Amino acid sequence: MFRHLLVWALFILYELALINITVGLLASPLQYVIYYALNIFLFYGNAHIILDFAFFRTSRPYLISIALIILELLFFLWMKLHIDVWLTGGGPVRYALDTMHEKIYLTNIFREIFFIGFSIAYWSMLYMVKFKERNHFMEKESLRQITRSLELENKFITAENAFLQNQISPHLLFNTLNFIFNAVHKLSDRAGKGVMLLSELMRYSLLSSQDNRMVPLLAEIGQIDKLIELSALRFQGEIYLKFTKKGKLKEVMIPPLILLTLVENMLKHGDLGDRSNSGKIDLEVNQNGLHFTTQNLKRKSTPYPSSGVGLKNIKKRLANLFPERHQLAVTENDSIYKITLTLNL
């Protein structure tokens, strides 16, 4: 803004000085104020109204801009000549208009073309600057996307290597669990059932984590039920937990182990032995997405110190699989711990 005012001030001073030197006579200040205000309006109106409209809102910008500039030129010529008549009270200007004197028309036409030409140059430079800024922004955005893709690729490679390094044979694991089941179920039905549930949970965890596939929500719910049943066996039924499910669950696909890990975290660190204040798991699917909540009392002391790794891994997976399409919130006070997850499916 300041630079515009400075340029206009210098331009007006230059013209007035030139008139004073060559002609030696200046008109009244009111005339110059009105004329320069009209020309400044022509300058900015041509750039920000005529050219912006023609080039950004029409399909034939060059033809339309030429037509609009001609109409603009005629309008400002008409206005300028009538202002001349008003300021001079008629006289020579009225006579020239009545007789179609070419000098007064040509003088004003060249004057308006002069300002329109500078306006076109100003608009062109402004557009070039905006175009360069837009290209620069798009290049930065493209570079950011490439960088993000490389980071995700590196994370995937790192995770894949870690998985391969730590992978054990599933056959060995399940054969061992099957041996343990056959050995203990004859001695204890509860222990045998616990081994069977553990085997099914391990099978689901291993098979579903071998690729990036999605799994049916009902499959994840089934594993949550087994995990709760296994925990009830461990504590001889002395856990109090309500699991409610609402909505259309059959057609929903989700990443495996996310909900299961949240429930595991609850069973591991929560106090679920209070009948009057039981733990709660709420699952609902509606038009807004999937909503999953766990709430439990905090243990006063826990045999399993929390490292936070499970929750951190979930946050990373959600950021990769549901960027800007999920909300994961942890709220707690001295006695209650609550996790709320929303997925925009």
TrEMBL record:
The keyword Mitochondrion does not apply. InterPro entries: Bact_2-comp_sensor_kinase, Sig_transdc_His_kin_internal. Residues 159-237 form the Signal transduction histidine kinase internal region domain. It holds the Pfam family His_kinase. GO terms for cellular component: membrane. GO terms for molecular function: phosphorelay sensor kinase activity. The chain crosses the membrane at residues 5-27, 33-55, 62-79, 109-129. Keywords: Membrane, Transmembrane, Transmembrane helix. This is Signal transduction histidine kinase internal region domain-containing protein. It comes from Mucilaginibacter agri.
